[in-house]
Amino acid sequence: MSDNVTPLHKLRIFKEQIGIDAADLAELAPFRHFFTERKEEFGDYFYNVFWGIPATRTILEGEKTRGVLRKTWSLWFETFFSADFDDTFLSWLWKIGVRHVEVNLDQRFSNLGFAVIRQFCHGIVFKELPLQQRGRVLSIIDKLLDLCVLVETSAYIENTISCNIEVMREMADRVRNPAMIIGWNIKRLHDKADADSKEYRVYKMLMEENERLEGMVRDIKVYMDLFETEPEIDTVNFEEIINEVLLKLKEEGTGKDIQAEISTHKEGILLKGDKEELTYLFYYLVQNSMEAAEPDNMRVVIKSGLDPDSPSYVRIEIFNTGDPPKEKTEQLFSPFFSTKVKGTGFGLPIAQVVVRKHLGRLDIKPMPGQGTNVIVSLPRATL
Q1: pLDDT tens sequence across 143-191
Q2: 219 near 344, Cβ under 8 Å?
Q3: Domain annotation for the chain: domains and CATH numbers
Q4: Are the CB atoms for 50 and 60 separated by under 8 Å?
Q5: Cα–Cα distance, 148 to 3 (Å, whole number)
Q6: How many Cα atoms occupy the beta-carbon half-sphere of 87 within 13 Å?
Q7: pLDDT tens-place string over residues 220-240
């Protein structure tokens, strides 16, 4: 995701999930001046804490640096306690996280910084506020700081990934055209060769490998595009998506010999999300499950219903009869990693990015002796 694109939809959901509302800000309003009046004191406090850490001391050396950083931290503190926590403030937080990537700041220092801010705020509350109001004000400040941590950390992670995405994009661009030219020439030689000859078998093998390479380039493009765009949130019918996916896989040959069983909630399942991105999600998950199914029991079962752990979410399970993966889960979601000979290594990474963009969860649950269950939880839409 480029640094000039702020995912406001996601940040608003962060705010909603943490539980920040107008009543919180109204309740905090009479006490804000206790904090804004101490902005310079905060700048000194913050500086002194980091000066005491050997790993950050070299960053702080120099009179000019000290002055600039103190002023920056004082301004942050004042802005925090003056903000309405609206879209403008959320965008400001996001850009700070992006800036941390640009200057190569270790995220551990940012997390430590929020701990220092929290400690300083708690000190003011206990010093200035009446006993009966301390607990409520502390709770509100903690929620607001939790939002800051979530937004800045999310920006840091996504833009760190984005730096690697640019490398992958250049690589894909360099490979795409040569792969197409090579593929066309190999097919021409393959079609001319005698079907019983050694050359024919070699050309066929080369064609299959080139097709895998072209598929990888295509999947890399899908993967990269997901980082460059925000989801267009709408109400999406899960049953329509899954039927489209099954039809496409059947036409491509993947689902030709697979017995697919669908069991949906009696009232139907409506998802809150981007239809195109959710189609990618279920295409790759179902494709992966079909390819992993046991050859003697080629069966995939798709179930959907309300998430028992969260009424505002939908739970979708995709079961296949194949052996559970031996690799660690995090390894399965790594780009370029594949357990299949013809795999591109991007199916599960694409699925994971879509789920994260929709603030959902994706788990792979081994079921020894039975198969593997992929469980997805996504926000539920209501009419």
Answers
A1: 999 889 888 887 877 766 665 555 555 555 555 555 565 666 666 766 7
A2: yes
A3: 8-164 (1.10.490.10), 231-383 (3.30.565.10)
A4: yes
A5: 17
A6: 6
A7: 777 777 777 788 889 999 999
